[in-house]
Amino acid sequence: MIDKLTEKIKKTGAPIVVGLDPMPDYLPPHLLEAAVSARGESLEAAADAVFAYNRGIVDAVCDLIPAVKPQIAMYEQFGLPGLEAFKKTVDYCHEKDLLVIGDVKRGDIGSTSAAYAAAHLGTIAVGGRKFTPFGEDFATVNPYLGSDGIQPFIDVCKEEKKGIFVLVKTSNPSSGEFQDRMITEDGRSCPLYEYVGRMVEQWGSSCMGKTFSYVGAVVGATYPEMGRILRELMPNACILVPGYGAQGGKGADLVPFFRRDGLGAIVNSSRGIIAAYRQERYKEMGMTDQNYADAARMAVLEMKEDIAQALA
After folding, report:
1. How many CA atoms lie within 13 A of 102 on its CB side?
2. Tens digits of per-residue pLDDT, 136-181?
3. Residue 295, CA atoms < 13 Å, CB-side half-sphere
4. Is 312 within the bounds of a domain?
5. Which alpha helices (DSSP H) does the chain contain, by range?
6. Of 104, 124, 105, which Cα lies nearest the Cα of 115?
7. Which of 165, 252, 270, 275 is the most exposed place for a label (fewest CB within 10 A)?
8. Which residues are catalytic?
9. Domain count, the chain
10. What is the CATH number of the domain that holds 82?
11. C-beta atoms surrounding 305 within 10 Å
């Protein structure tokens, strides 16, 4: 899938992934009202509204981008109906030929990681048949239980030709409490995130695609200088870059994450796109909850131009 992702980035000219993170207050009222009218005030109604919301956005942007990234917590908050909406979203995005990065941040002891990997990237056997539980193309993974928490994902990636993005330097403000701590490695001091970056490169060396490894990294746009260092440490890794837009990252901050050929990174924007209709600048353009998907499309086009100008 890393080869397909690279080709789709080249084809679209948009190293962009749209985060499908449907917080309840992002939902346009008319979608929720229609769902409640059909299902009553229930978790099922909320999940139906979430899927309708996602479908509208996907229909509006699928020709512009290579991938989407649904954050599973935003679906789990609606219980089992929410997980059904997550699965329906994954399947619908595949119907639109979009790659799906499951933002699930899994990682545990070996046997538990193996179960997570099967759930999100692989298959599970029931008697003589195999089933695909969620079926994402990539998953985000937490490395802080060590290699035995990562290896089951790598094993499934090799078998299924899928990929993972390992948390290395995340975009949230408190990430430095742990990730920036200085450690000693081979007699020299370095931040913990640099060590994790080297491990990502090592893990990925055993499962290379044509250009990049199946093992990528998550590095926040809010830390461009750290991105430059990690780009050098992980020459074979595709970097998933959160933090653009609503979290403060902008096109100029993204340059260090890319290789000189303009490849090697894919930039996420979530509420900056899916809730664009709520931003004042889009309201001034006539965007409302009724045409939220049009606002999302406009936000993607503007993001694409911002990145292209930065990389020019």
Report:
1. 32
2. 999 999 999 999 999 999 999 999 999 999 999 998 889 999 999 9
3. 25
4. no
5. 2-12, 29-39, 43-61, 73-76, 79-95, 110-120, 147-160, 176-179, 192-204, 224-233, 251-254, 271-274, 280-283, 292-311
6. 124
7. 252
8. 105
9. 1
10. 3.20.20.70
11. 12
